Amino acid sequence: LDRVIPVIEAISQRFDCVISIDTSKAKVMTEAVNAGASLINDVRALQEQDALAAAVEAKVPVCLMHMQGQPRVMQQNPHYDNVIEDVMTFLQSRISICIEAGIAQEQIIVDPGFGFGKSLEHNYQILANLQMFHQLKVPVLAGMSRKSMIGNLLQREVNQRLAGNIAVATVAAQKGAQIIRVHDVKETVDAVKIINMLNAYRNNNER
Q1: How much is the pTM?
Q2: Residues with catalytic roles
Q3: pLDDT (tens digit, 9 = 90+) per residue, 20-50?
Q4: Which of 168, 164, 165, 174 is nearest to 194 (CA)?
């Protein structure tokens, strides 16, 4: 709270923008929203104590992320029977629980959790099949920017991953991701504008 609340207050006073609080803790959710945050992003998908109740009370959109294991050990030999089906089943379960608790479906976003308890192969399987997550009937967020799925494949350090960042963001845009979390905003916006133009022409030709 000491770290994030002053930042949220300063941003909300200076800019007209959506502020996302990345937390799994109920008290942080509540205080952050009171300070001006307008999106709760939870890597544990509101499974921690009182988190679901806090999110219901906050009445702001929530992003539910899939993570296998806990952050300190999640990359130690992650295993799935079928990574796409397993992640989708988990997210569908959390969506249902949230709706039952009182969060409107229109307030829910899902994040398949690139890099959170996934091997290199798992990450690219999810990216290759990202369009399948639209079956959940909520917006899909893709957050891959600067992650090890880019660095390990290309053998690039964090500050050398711009081309990889734009490549995965472009694929995510092609597959209909409604939200793409990036560090290199200007460059990614340029890439997405091109994808949007191509989609517009494709849609016109299909009419």
Answers
A1: 0.93
A2: 147, 181
A3: 999 999 999 999 999 999 999 999 999 999 9
A4: 174
